[in-house]
Write a structure and sequence with these properties.
2 copies of one chain form a homodimer. By secondary structure, the first copy, chain A, is of the alpha/beta class. Chain A folds into 5 domains: 1-97, Ubiquitin-like (UB roll); 113-180, Ubiquitin-like (UB roll) (Roll); 186-326, Nucleotidyltransferase, domain 5 (2-Layer Sandwich); 347-382 and 496-602, 2-Layer Sandwich (Nucleotidyltransferase, domain 5); 385-490, no CATH class. Chain A is 32% helix and 24% strand. In chain A, a hairpin with a 2-residue loop joins strand 16 and strand 17. In chain A, helix 12 crosses helix 16. Chain A is globular. At the A-B interface, helix 4 and helix 5 of A face helix 4 and helix 5 of B.
Chain lengths: 609, 609
């Protein structure tokens, strides 16, 4: 797949976007919030932007008025060339107000890394101090330097070949590297989010905090198992399994590093730090730490935190003196990615009660405020990612992502291609609409068309006998390239019920732990790509979330990734992340007798929404 | 060469001795002081010990009285088999009183390393803390553990396969390694002294402070140059020179590690720390740090101190989590070995004024007391090591080591073999005796035999015309296997004058810096193997040392090596070593105009001794 550059004005941010993605998706992934109440269906017109080819010489804020581009809807614009887009000032302002951007903006440049040049005095017979001592004497106050052997090896020649001018790279007040001459303007880092399915990396200029480029790739471990449990089994059963999975992900991260540095036109040696968020299994695999006990009761991880690691030691190809910061995890199934979500959404600093739902391959829930947070994990994911659904598929071109049932069924697919399957948000939409239309009742049973005389005839025709009860035809095979009708089966609905039931029951356990009621929740934050694409009305209708005003529900995009960025640019954020990992109370649902009861009730759909 | 085991009772110490060495030499090298006023000539009889073959089952102190060995003189006993020797109690007591032993004994077990077992609680669904957190909870107070990835990799299985019992290895209050089961009794370290010519390593039980075995080997870098300057040239001129010299010494250190662990019957993995002393060039080469600027004015080293290094990083094969502590150096030509000498002789704590002279391949001088120390280095070494002397050789079998001239010349060679050359202490002895006998005058000129009517005829016959003036026949070729007479040439005497003149002038500069007189020196300590074998009367007679009562001159053996041992067993000693390196004032002689004047005067021999 080809990648194109998209320069976003007036921020100046440069994105790298894979061919075929919509501009809206790219902007959201890069953390730029762009309003789209219609859910990206091209109907509300609110995401209108200006676009021009990249050869248009527009680089500065002042020149925006000169742009003579076309006016387009970001949600409909497929990126098929290098381009400059102008996201009108008002919307950028609004984006700054978005939860994640506010967090990111609230941290200035308080990073761990600084660079400065020094001039080291020349030695003399009268003052024959060692190179090291003269260097120490020239260092800024408060900077210590327990010099490593590597630095001693390069120091003598470096001093003498560069007129005794060198650049010092210091990390947390300690020198980590010396460079010849003045390289102070080159200081970069990469924030990674290692998902079970997708790896995302953002290259950040550590001098300005600016995100210069973002790249994502599929997690190559996928071929060894779609979810964490199957990957753990692989490690358990294969001799070199752990090594294989570790080297796969490291190779992929290195590819992202290469692409990012190419995109931004910088040297890999100018990248000095990497931050990592990911679920607990992903961080275990990345470090080559055996994850098998995560899958056996009592499901404990090997570690919660790990000291900063030389990137080199992990085989990550950035500056040889660079470090890798692994954000700590909370528990076996609530990982560093959840810490990232909490960090980015500010749950730990919020005065009001908030609920964050991060649905990836697993579903992690966090409830609370500055007074305390509770978290749990539910095995909810696969159904939402299209797994275990008869026609389920990933959110790829041709996947049904929206369903409307009024009179007849209307579908929307990714890139408007003929439907080839249905992705997670499509399943939720389909079931919500089927519920609303009366195709299924609150127990989840698809109505027998014989007795369903209230249903429009076009709808009734779509209800057909299936393996267990009835199935519902979303798309007839004549309309697409498939050999059979594209169905939502009774079994699919049961899968969805199990998944959403687990999440709702988890929420109820957390509410009970905190001693609060549903209505006390002031905001429900849907994190992750899934949370971004889901139609919140549909999530509400099927009872995936408590019965609150829709205004209180908000999609926040890739919050885990933003958390990783925060830890990268700010030492304060890092300290906060460690505090979060230490203080969040983890609730192991399988250890609670009341969970099963709550779950049994929660698998039904709400009756009166 | 074969090595034999020598078990020393009542200390229980086990030495590894190379075939052909005398027992006395082995004892002295191992730090056991044994009296020998005759200088090892077998005449005073004070070094008498009991010896039996090792198969004699004597292992405990109480059984000493049972030994029925032979009575031998340690100075005459060549080690040619495994043996048990009993050094009578009185002499061991005395040995404890020796300067170095006192220092070694004054440090208890205050090492950096401790081992203890812990039982880590088993996790449960109710308390599903990570392996790491449960381990942390089980650690002793005051022990922190920023766990490294390596430890995380082994922890999960180690816990579960060893009933949750593990041994913790902590260093400076921080855990460095975890081991399965209880290994608390296995805790060893090796103190190295990396000399330009010889490498010495002592294996120490870190639980008891006991020296279990000592091994020495030639420094394999010798083939690339006998002294530091020629090795630096090699690095400067050869592409891979630095790498070659570094890997040579590391290979040799690893061989010593292997032999020591074999000798003592312990696993290399039970060795957790290595300490290193050596001159500045040797430590630069060991670390692979370019030493070329040491040989160019203003002769500055790259470093003074270096943070502790993972032994693995240097390729040293001990426990993979083990560390290597490099004792800091003072200046370009006053290295960590001198810090070791100061540490072992307690110069920095002495109330009275002391002078330490460490003559190895270079000659380092330290003068002072607890109020302050001054140090300098003189290029004195090679003559004392037999280099640049016509028949000079290392202290190997067949080397003349003692010379007496009364009536005629009497020689003593190492192992009493026919003379093949003369070693450093032999040269000093020869010149001192020639001075005393009147063969040379105070200017160093060998007397014309024509006018020397006061000399015995046997002596006059030995004075023969040479390349410059006259030479002196020490040994006629008929008496040994050589093709020519073994001479001390006029040029040899000039070489010795330059060497001893440099040392004496250096001492005078130090005296002047401190504002004290020769007579204020209460003790002159001769360190290094050379200092042990030199006849102090001879050193005094040729004016190598100031004109003080002989009682004030004392040989202290391998003080640098003992310093390395002190740093190994005691954190306090290490702190002291760092303080010494920081506080000793280094005098660069080449920067002082008065040095040349003092040197010109000091090359004459004393007229009235």
């Amino acid at each position: 797949m080809k990648n194109f550059k998209v320069k976003v004005l007036p921020t100046g941010m440069e994105l790298s976007v894979t061919q075929g993605n919509t501009l809206m998706k790219a902007l959201i992934e890069a953390g730029i919030y762009i309003e789209g109440p219609c859910g990206g269906r091209g109907t509300c017109g609110k995401c209108k932007i200006e676009v021009a080819s990249l050869d248009t010489e527009i680089t500065k804020l002042e020149e925006i008025s000169n742009i003579r581009g076309e006016s387009k809807l970001a949600c409909r614009l497929e990126v098929d060339r290098n381009m400059v887009v102008v996201v009108p000032q008002a919307k950028v302002e609004e984006s700054r107000k978005s939860l994640l951007q506010t967090e990111l903006a609230s941290y200035g440049r308080q990073g761990r890394l600084v660079k400065f040049t020094i001039i080291v005095p020349v030695p003399s017979l009268e003052k024959p101090a060692s190179d090291q001592e003269r260097l120490w004497g020239a260092l800024h106050e408060g900077i210590s330097y327990p010099m490593k052997v590597e630095a001693l090896r390069i120091l003598p020649d470096m001093l003498r070949k560069n007129k005794h001018i060198i650049t010092v790279v210091a990390r947390k007040g300690e020198v980590v590297a010396l460079e010849a001459g003045d390289t102070t303007l080159e200081l970069y880092g990469i924030a990674f989010d290692i998902g079970t399915t997708t790896l995302v990396g953002s290259l950040i200029n550590l001098l300005t905090g600016e995100v210069l480029a973002t790249q994502s790739e599929g997690n190559p471990q996928r071929v060894y198992g779609a979810d964490v449990i199957s990957r753990i089994s692989y490690v358990d059963n294969e001799d070199q399994g752990l090594y294989t999975l570790q080297s796969k992900v490291i190779t992929a991260l290195n590819e992202i590093v290469s692409k990012l540095s190419e995109d931004a036109g910088i040297k890999k040696e100018s990248i000095y730090e990497i931050t990592i968020v990911g679920n607990t299994t992903m961080t275990h695999l990345l470090l080559g730490v055996c994850p098998v006990y995560l899958a056996r009761a009592p499901y404990v991880p090997a570690f919660k935190t790990v000291a900063d690691i030389r990137a080199q030691e992990l085989g990550l190809k950035i500056n040889p003196e660079g470090y890798c910061v692994i954000v700590p995890n909370i528990a076996g199934f609530v990982g560093a990615d959840t810490v990232g979500v909490i960090l980015a959404t500010g749950l730990d600093k919020s005065r009001e009660l908030r609920l964050a739902i991060d649905i990836g391959t697993n579903g992690e829930l966090v409830l609370g405020s500055e007074k305390g947070l509770y978290a749990c994990s539910t095995a909810a994911g696969p159904a939402f990612e299209g797994a275990q659904i008869k026609f389920g598929m990933r959110a790829a071109p041709g996947a049904i992502e929206r369903v409307d049932i009024t009179g007849d069924v209307r579908l929307q697919t990714i890139n408007s291609l003929p439907a080839v399957g249905i992705c997670g948000s499509g399943v939720i939409d389909a079931v919500a609409e089927m519920l609303k239309a009366g195709v299924i009742d609150y127990t989840g049973r698809i109505t027998d068309p014989e007795g369903a005389i209230d249903l429009p005839v076009q709808i009734r025709k779509r209800i057909v006998p299936g393996a267990s009860g009835f199935d519902f035809i979303l798309d007839y095979c004549e309309g697409n390239g498939l050999d059979e009708d594209l169905l939502i089966t009774q079994k699919d609905i049961r899968e969805l019920q199990l998944a959403k039931g687990a999440i709702l029951a988890g929420i109820q356990v957390l509410l009970e732990e905190l001693g609060v009621r549903e209505q006390d929740i002031t905001k429900i934050l849907l994190a992750g790509a899934f949370g971004t694409y889901i139609r919140k009305e549909s999530a509400w209708r099927i009872g995936l979330v408590p019965n609150l005003d829709l205004e209180r529900i908000r999609a926040v995009g890739n919050a885990a990734g933003v958390g990783s960025q925060l830890v990268l640019i700010s030492e304060d954020a890092r300290v906060r992340a460690w505090r979060i990992a230490d203080s969040v109370k983890y609730i192991e649902l399988s250890a609670r007798k009341d969970f099963q009861d709550k779950f049994m009730e929660a698998i039904y759909f709400p009756q009166f929404r």
